[in-house]
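Action item from last week, closing it out:
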Amino acid sequence: METLPFEPITQSDIYRIIVWALAPTFVAFVILVVLRFRRTVRGQVNPSDLVKTTATGNLSGGIAPELSLLAGAGAGGPAHETLGEKFLRPTWGLRLITLGIPALAIYFLAQTRTTGDLAFPAVDLAMNGGILAVMVHVLVYTNTYELRYDRDRFAHRNWFYQRREFHWSEIRSIRDDNAYFYEIRMKRRAKAYVPKHLVGIEGFVETVQTSIARNESQ
């Protein structure tokens, strides 16, 4: 049986691959710049624009622009409110990301089993199984996450699904990790990692900033 001759990758092919790889990032970056420019022209400054980035976030460089744009889709709507308590849930963009990542992980596992490319089957399967378990955890946590707050406190669940409650008088600072979370520090050295991409998040961030200013003046 004759085999087709292998065609080496040319320089133009490499350029084409690079363009296709960078195109989504470039488009997302342009959209983000346009949106920020429009807010600046209108004199609109969101509370989140005033949040400083953590030292680790500055070093990491943040997430890809297209992921940031997608995760924030739907965040501009108002938070659901009942009897003076507001409920914040993940945006549809963030939910979409958490659905896509486990799907890719499952596809990768299926491919490795089909092709038999495992150098150390037991070790590789254990590692892949662990990665898949983490992805499923992220999927479940994100799609069931809810943050509640009223005039006295806010409450949410941490990564271990434990309910944590914090009073506004405890808050010392808020920082942006330049990825998916706000890091909120308390006076008693406790921390809360709140997802950034929630519906109505700007109202929550503004309340946090107001509480920090009030606590600093006391």
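Closing note: Residues 111 and 117 are 9 Å apart (CA to CA).
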